[in-house]
Amino acid sequence: MDFKLPSYKDLLTMSKEALDAAVAPVREALAKARAAQAAAELDERIINQRNKITKLCIEKEINFNAIADEIDELDLLERRKKVLSEIVAQLFPKEVA
Q1: What is the pLDDT of residues 25-34, one digit of tens each?
Q2: In sequence order, what are the residues at sequence separation of 6 or more whose Cβ sits closer than 8 angstroms to the Cβ of residue 48?
Q3: Among 20, 42, 62, 97, which is most buried by a count of CB atoms within 10 Å?
Q4: What distance lies between CA 31 and its chain's CA centroid?
Q5: Helices (H), 1-15
Q6: Integer distance in angstroms from the first to the last C-alpha of the chain?
Q7: 90: number of CA atoms within 13 Å, CB side?
Q8: Could you tell me if 85 and 42 are in contact, meaning their C-beta atoms sit under 8 angstroms apart?
Q9: ∠ CA 43-49-55 to the nearest 5 degrees?
Q10: pTM passes above 0.85
Q11: How many CB atoms neighbour CB 70 within 10 A?
Q12: Which pLDDT does position 16 carry in this prediction?
């Protein structure tokens, strides 16, 4: 086992901030993974919304109001996807080496 426990005295003197800093990289990775999952879920919803619009367009009796409503929903989903991308870019800027 490579992991060694620090002495109890060292643990008592360790600040909460130092302990939080130790897990910061893991928390960041988890947050990035959640952001990626949210983006994938939005992509799925966008695809499903486009399919829904297509189905409405091929009905025998076309309901133009329903199509307009679904296009509005698609626009909202696409806007949300763009905003999510901007949030991720601001929270997790790519570091240049």
Answers
A1: 888 899 999 9
A2: none
A3: 42
A4: 8
A5: 8-13
A6: 33
A7: 6
A8: no
A9: 140
A10: no
A11: 19
A12: 74
